[in-house]
Specification:
Elements (H helix, E strand, L loop, with lengths): L1 H17 L17 H8 L1 E3 L3 H6 L12 H17 L3 E5 L7 H13 L6 E5 L7 H5 L7 H5 L5 H4 L1 E3 L3 E4 L8 H6 L1 H14 L3 E5 L8 H5 L5 E7 L5 H14 L1 E8 L9
Parallel strand pairs: 1-4, 2-6, 2-7, 3-5, 3-6, 7-8
Antiparallel strand pairs: 4-5
The chain binds adenosine-5'-triphosphate (ATP) and magnesium ion (MG).
Keywords: ATP-binding, Nucleotide-binding
GO molecular function, one term: protein tyrosine kinase activity
GO cellular component, one term: plasma membrane
Protein backbone atom coordinates (compact mmCIF):
# COMPACT_ATOMS: atom_id res chain seq x y z
CA UNK A 1 0.00 0.00 0.00
CA UNK A 2 2.86 2.35 0.89
CA UNK A 3 4.55 1.50 -2.34
CA UNK A 4 1.40 2.33 -4.24
CA UNK A 5 1.00 5.70 -2.44
CA UNK A 6 4.66 6.54 -3.22
CA UNK A 7 4.11 5.79 -6.89
CA UNK A 8 0.99 8.00 -6.97
CA UNK A 9 2.87 10.87 -5.26
CA UNK A 10 5.71 10.54 -7.75
CA UNK A 11 3.34 10.68 -10.69
CA UNK A 12 1.54 13.72 -9.19
CA UNK A 13 4.85 15.56 -8.68
CA UNK A 14 6.07 14.84 -12.17
CA UNK A 15 2.71 16.14 -13.59
CA UNK A 16 3.13 19.29 -11.49
CA UNK A 17 6.64 19.78 -12.90
CA UNK A 18 5.35 19.51 -16.45
CA UNK A 19 2.68 22.17 -15.81
CA UNK A 20 4.89 24.39 -13.64
CA UNK A 21 3.58 27.97 -14.12
CA UNK A 22 7.22 29.07 -14.14
CA UNK A 23 7.61 27.34 -17.49
CA UNK A 24 6.16 29.57 -20.18
CA UNK A 25 4.00 27.69 -22.65
CA UNK A 26 3.81 29.65 -25.85
CA UNK A 27 0.66 29.18 -27.96
CA UNK A 28 1.42 27.89 -31.45
CA UNK A 29 0.87 30.75 -33.84
CA UNK A 30 -2.01 29.93 -36.20
CA UNK A 31 -0.90 30.37 -39.79
CA UNK A 32 -3.37 32.64 -41.52
CA UNK A 33 -1.41 33.62 -44.61
CA UNK A 34 -1.27 31.01 -47.38
CA UNK A 35 2.19 30.14 -48.51
CA UNK A 36 3.85 28.57 -51.52
CA UNK A 37 1.52 27.20 -54.18
CA UNK A 38 -1.68 28.51 -52.52
CA UNK A 39 -0.22 32.01 -52.32
CA UNK A 40 0.75 31.92 -55.99
CA UNK A 41 -2.82 30.94 -56.96
CA UNK A 42 -4.28 33.67 -54.76
CA UNK A 43 -1.96 36.23 -56.32
CA UNK A 44 -3.50 35.69 -59.78
CA UNK A 45 -6.04 38.36 -60.74
CA UNK A 46 -9.50 36.91 -60.45
CA UNK A 47 -12.31 37.28 -62.97
CA UNK A 48 -15.88 36.11 -63.15
CA UNK A 49 -18.19 35.31 -66.01
CA UNK A 50 -21.95 35.62 -66.09
CA UNK A 51 -23.77 32.31 -66.27
CA UNK A 52 -26.03 33.67 -69.03
CA UNK A 53 -22.97 34.61 -71.17
CA UNK A 54 -21.39 31.22 -70.62
CA UNK A 55 -24.57 29.40 -71.56
CA UNK A 56 -24.89 31.48 -74.73
CA UNK A 57 -21.47 30.09 -75.67
CA UNK A 58 -22.55 26.57 -74.71
CA UNK A 59 -20.37 26.54 -71.59
CA UNK A 60 -22.68 24.76 -69.17
CA UNK A 61 -20.42 23.27 -66.50
CA UNK A 62 -20.20 26.20 -64.09
CA UNK A 63 -22.87 24.50 -61.99
CA UNK A 64 -23.93 20.86 -61.72
CA UNK A 65 -26.97 20.48 -63.99
CA UNK A 66 -28.42 18.15 -66.58
CA UNK A 67 -26.78 19.86 -69.56
CA UNK A 68 -23.37 19.54 -67.89
CA UNK A 69 -23.58 15.75 -67.53
CA UNK A 70 -21.86 14.75 -70.82
CA UNK A 71 -18.97 17.14 -70.09
CA UNK A 72 -18.80 15.96 -66.47
CA UNK A 73 -18.53 12.36 -67.67
CA UNK A 74 -15.79 13.41 -70.11
CA UNK A 75 -14.01 15.29 -67.29
CA UNK A 76 -14.10 12.34 -64.93
CA UNK A 77 -13.00 9.79 -67.54
CA UNK A 78 -10.17 12.03 -68.74
CA UNK A 79 -9.05 12.76 -65.19
CA UNK A 80 -9.01 9.10 -64.16
CA UNK A 81 -7.05 8.03 -67.23
CA UNK A 82 -4.62 10.90 -66.83
CA UNK A 83 -4.06 10.11 -63.15
CA UNK A 84 -3.50 6.43 -63.92
CA UNK A 85 -0.77 7.40 -66.35
CA UNK A 86 0.69 10.31 -64.40
CA UNK A 87 -0.32 12.73 -67.18
CA UNK A 88 -1.07 16.42 -66.47
CA UNK A 89 -1.08 18.08 -69.90
CA UNK A 90 -4.11 17.59 -72.10
CA UNK A 91 -4.20 18.93 -75.66
CA UNK A 92 -7.55 19.47 -77.36
CA UNK A 93 -7.55 19.46 -81.13
CA UNK A 94 -9.61 18.42 -84.13
CA UNK A 95 -9.12 17.56 -87.80
CA UNK A 96 -10.82 20.73 -89.12
CA UNK A 97 -11.95 24.08 -87.63
CA UNK A 98 -15.28 24.75 -85.95
CA UNK A 99 -15.54 21.29 -84.42
CA UNK A 100 -16.13 22.33 -80.81
CA UNK A 101 -12.56 22.31 -79.42
CA UNK A 102 -12.85 25.56 -77.46
CA UNK A 103 -16.35 24.70 -76.27
CA UNK A 104 -15.03 21.38 -74.97
CA UNK A 105 -11.93 22.99 -73.42
CA UNK A 106 -13.93 25.66 -71.53
CA UNK A 107 -16.49 23.12 -70.31
CA UNK A 108 -13.74 20.81 -69.07
CA UNK A 109 -11.96 23.66 -67.28
CA UNK A 110 -15.07 24.83 -65.41
CA UNK A 111 -16.14 21.25 -64.72
CA UNK A 112 -12.73 20.56 -63.17
CA UNK A 113 -13.11 23.81 -61.21
CA UNK A 114 -16.20 22.41 -59.47
CA UNK A 115 -13.90 19.83 -57.90
CA UNK A 116 -12.63 21.91 -54.99
CA UNK A 117 -9.65 19.63 -54.40
CA UNK A 118 -8.32 20.06 -57.95
CA UNK A 119 -6.47 22.83 -59.73
CA UNK A 120 -6.94 23.29 -63.47
CA UNK A 121 -5.39 25.57 -66.08
CA UNK A 122 -6.65 26.47 -69.54
CA UNK A 123 -4.28 27.90 -72.17
CA UNK A 124 -5.62 29.43 -75.38
CA UNK A 125 -2.96 28.22 -77.80
CA UNK A 126 -4.99 28.87 -80.93
CA UNK A 127 -2.63 31.79 -81.44
CA UNK A 128 -3.91 32.72 -84.92
CA UNK A 129 -7.51 32.94 -83.78
CA UNK A 130 -7.75 33.10 -80.00
CA UNK A 131 -11.33 32.76 -78.81
CA UNK A 132 -11.35 31.64 -75.16
CA UNK A 133 -11.69 35.30 -74.04
CA UNK A 134 -14.91 35.54 -76.09
CA UNK A 135 -16.34 32.44 -74.42
CA UNK A 136 -15.75 34.06 -71.01
CA UNK A 137 -16.53 37.57 -72.35
CA UNK A 138 -13.36 38.72 -70.60
CA UNK A 139 -10.51 40.97 -71.68
CA UNK A 140 -7.12 39.65 -70.54
CA UNK A 141 -4.53 42.39 -69.90
CA UNK A 142 -1.74 40.77 -71.98
CA UNK A 143 -1.43 38.28 -74.82
CA UNK A 144 -0.57 34.68 -74.03
CA UNK A 145 2.34 35.08 -76.50
CA UNK A 146 3.78 37.85 -74.33
CA UNK A 147 3.74 35.47 -71.38
CA UNK A 148 5.18 32.50 -73.31
CA UNK A 149 8.04 34.62 -74.67
CA UNK A 150 8.83 36.02 -71.22
CA UNK A 151 7.75 39.65 -71.78
CA UNK A 152 5.30 39.37 -68.87
CA UNK A 153 4.99 36.84 -66.06
CA UNK A 154 2.29 34.20 -65.81
CA UNK A 155 1.09 35.96 -62.65
CA UNK A 156 0.52 39.17 -64.61
CA UNK A 157 -1.02 37.51 -67.65
CA UNK A 158 -3.25 34.67 -66.44
CA UNK A 159 -6.61 35.25 -64.77
CA UNK A 160 -8.13 33.14 -62.03
CA UNK A 161 -11.70 31.87 -62.19
CA UNK A 162 -12.88 30.92 -58.69
CA UNK A 163 -10.09 29.61 -56.50
CA UNK A 164 -8.74 26.85 -58.65
CA UNK A 165 -8.98 27.54 -62.40
CA UNK A 166 -6.36 29.69 -64.15
CA UNK A 167 -7.05 30.86 -67.69
CA UNK A 168 -4.31 32.17 -69.95
CA UNK A 169 -5.89 33.77 -73.00
CA UNK A 170 -5.40 36.44 -75.65
CA UNK A 171 -7.44 39.23 -77.17
CA UNK A 172 -5.47 39.37 -80.44
CA UNK A 173 -3.75 36.95 -82.82
CA UNK A 174 0.03 36.49 -82.81
CA UNK A 175 2.03 37.43 -85.87
CA UNK A 176 4.28 34.34 -85.83
CA UNK A 177 2.41 31.62 -83.95
CA UNK A 178 4.39 28.58 -85.17
CA UNK A 179 7.63 30.08 -83.89
CA UNK A 180 6.15 30.44 -80.38
CA UNK A 181 4.55 26.99 -80.39
CA UNK A 182 7.76 25.31 -81.55
CA UNK A 183 10.13 27.25 -79.28
CA UNK A 184 12.10 25.52 -76.54
CA UNK A 185 11.47 28.63 -74.39
CA UNK A 186 7.73 27.90 -74.56
CA UNK A 187 8.30 24.31 -73.36
CA UNK A 188 10.45 25.59 -70.50
CA UNK A 189 7.92 28.27 -69.56
CA UNK A 190 5.11 25.71 -69.35
CA UNK A 191 7.27 23.45 -67.19
CA UNK A 192 8.08 26.32 -64.85
CA UNK A 193 4.36 27.18 -64.56
CA UNK A 194 3.58 23.54 -63.81
CA UNK A 195 6.29 23.44 -61.13
CA UNK A 196 5.19 26.69 -59.50
CA UNK A 197 1.39 26.18 -59.55
CA UNK A 198 1.13 22.37 -59.39
CA UNK A 199 -2.05 22.08 -61.47
CA UNK A 200 -3.74 18.68 -61.69
CA UNK A 201 -4.66 19.32 -65.32
CA UNK A 202 -3.28 21.79 -67.88
CA UNK A 203 -5.66 22.06 -70.84
CA UNK A 204 -4.22 23.30 -74.13
CA UNK A 205 -6.84 24.58 -76.57
CA UNK A 206 -5.09 24.11 -79.92
CA UNK A 207 -5.90 24.80 -83.57
CA UNK A 208 -7.06 22.08 -85.96
CA UNK A 209 -4.44 19.63 -87.16
CA UNK A 210 -5.19 19.67 -90.89
CA UNK A 211 -5.09 23.43 -91.50
CA UNK A 212 -1.53 24.41 -90.59
CA UNK A 213 1.59 23.33 -88.68
CA UNK A 214 0.81 24.93 -85.32
CA UNK A 215 -0.59 21.89 -83.51
CA UNK A 216 2.11 19.61 -84.95
CA UNK A 217 4.71 22.07 -83.63
CA UNK A 218 3.25 22.10 -80.14
CA UNK A 219 2.08 18.53 -79.42
CA UNK A 220 5.45 17.46 -78.01
CA UNK A 221 4.48 19.54 -74.94
CA UNK A 222 1.33 17.50 -74.26
CA UNK A 223 1.09 14.21 -72.37
CA UNK A 224 -2.07 13.27 -74.22
CA UNK A 225 -4.71 14.65 -76.59
CA UNK A 226 -8.45 14.62 -77.09
CA UNK A 227 -9.60 14.76 -80.70
CA UNK A 228 -12.92 16.54 -81.19
CA UNK A 229 -14.82 15.56 -84.33
CA UNK A 230 -18.05 17.14 -85.41
CA UNK A 231 -20.58 14.52 -86.40
CA UNK A 232 -22.22 16.70 -89.06
CA UNK A 233 -19.06 17.86 -90.84
CA UNK A 234 -15.87 15.86 -90.10
CA UNK A 235 -15.24 13.10 -92.66
CA UNK A 236 -13.79 9.76 -91.69
CA UNK A 237 -10.65 10.32 -93.75
CA UNK A 238 -10.07 13.70 -92.05
CA UNK A 239 -10.42 11.99 -88.67
CA UNK A 240 -8.06 9.17 -89.65
CA UNK A 241 -5.45 11.58 -90.98
CA UNK A 242 -5.69 13.72 -87.83
CA UNK A 243 -5.50 10.75 -85.48
CA UNK A 244 -2.36 9.47 -87.24
CA UNK A 245 -0.68 12.85 -86.95
CA UNK A 246 -1.58 13.24 -83.26
CA UNK A 247 -0.57 9.67 -82.37
CA UNK A 248 2.89 10.27 -83.85
CA UNK A 249 3.49 12.97 -81.23
CA UNK A 250 1.49 12.11 -78.13
CA UNK A 251 -1.01 9.71 -76.56
CA UNK A 252 -4.53 9.84 -77.94
CA UNK A 253 -6.70 9.97 -74.81
CA UNK A 254 -9.94 9.70 -76.74
CA UNK A 255 -12.26 11.08 -79.36
CA UNK A 256 -15.18 13.41 -78.63
CA UNK A 257 -18.07 13.08 -81.05
CA UNK A 258 -19.57 16.55 -80.95
CA UNK A 259 -23.00 17.68 -82.13
CA UNK A 260 -24.32 14.15 -82.48
CA UNK A 261 -28.10 14.12 -82.33
CA UNK A 262 -29.51 11.09 -80.56
CA UNK A 263 -32.84 11.68 -82.23
CA UNK A 264 -31.32 11.84 -85.74
CA UNK A 265 -33.49 9.04 -87.09
CA UNK A 266 -36.68 10.72 -86.00
CA UNK A 267 -35.94 14.18 -87.45
N1 LIG B 1 -22.65 20.51 -79.90
C1 LIG B 1 -22.80 21.68 -80.51
N2 LIG B 1 -23.98 22.00 -81.06
C2 LIG B 1 -24.17 23.19 -81.68
N3 LIG B 1 -23.20 24.11 -81.83
C3 LIG B 1 -22.01 23.85 -81.30
C4 LIG B 1 -21.74 22.64 -80.61
N4 LIG B 1 -20.44 22.67 -80.20
C5 LIG B 1 -19.95 23.85 -80.60
N5 LIG B 1 -20.88 24.56 -81.26
C6 LIG B 1 -20.71 25.89 -81.84
O1 LIG B 1 -19.85 25.77 -82.96
C7 LIG B 1 -19.02 26.92 -83.06
C8 LIG B 1 -17.55 26.46 -83.03
O2 LIG B 1 -17.28 25.92 -81.74
P1 LIG B 1 -15.84 26.07 -81.11
O3 LIG B 1 -15.37 27.47 -81.20
O4 LIG B 1 -15.87 25.41 -79.80
O5 LIG B 1 -15.05 25.16 -82.15
P2 LIG B 1 -13.49 25.15 -82.43
O6 LIG B 1 -13.19 23.78 -82.94
O7 LIG B 1 -12.76 25.62 -81.24
O8 LIG B 1 -13.39 26.20 -83.59
P3 LIG B 1 -12.04 26.86 -84.16
O9 LIG B 1 -11.44 25.80 -85.05
O10 LIG B 1 -12.53 28.05 -84.92
O11 LIG B 1 -11.18 27.19 -83.00
C9 LIG B 1 -19.37 27.81 -81.89
O12 LIG B 1 -20.30 28.77 -82.33
C10 LIG B 1 -20.04 26.86 -80.90
O13 LIG B 1 -20.96 27.50 -80.05
MG1 LIG C 1 -11.30 27.12 -81.00
Amino acid sequence: MEKLQAALDKARNSRRERTDPGVEVKPVAKETQPSGVDARWQALTSFDAKDADLIRHRVVTRHARKEATPFDILRTKALLQMRQNGWKRLAITSPMPQSGKTTTACNLALGLGRQRDLRAMLFDLDLRDPSVHAFFETQPPYLIGEMLTGAVSFEEQALRYGDNVAVSMSLHPETDPTRILLAEDTAEKLTSIQDAYEPDVMIYDLPSVLVNDDTRAFLKNADCALIVVRSDSTTYSQFEHCQREVAEQTNVLGVVLNAYRHDKRTT
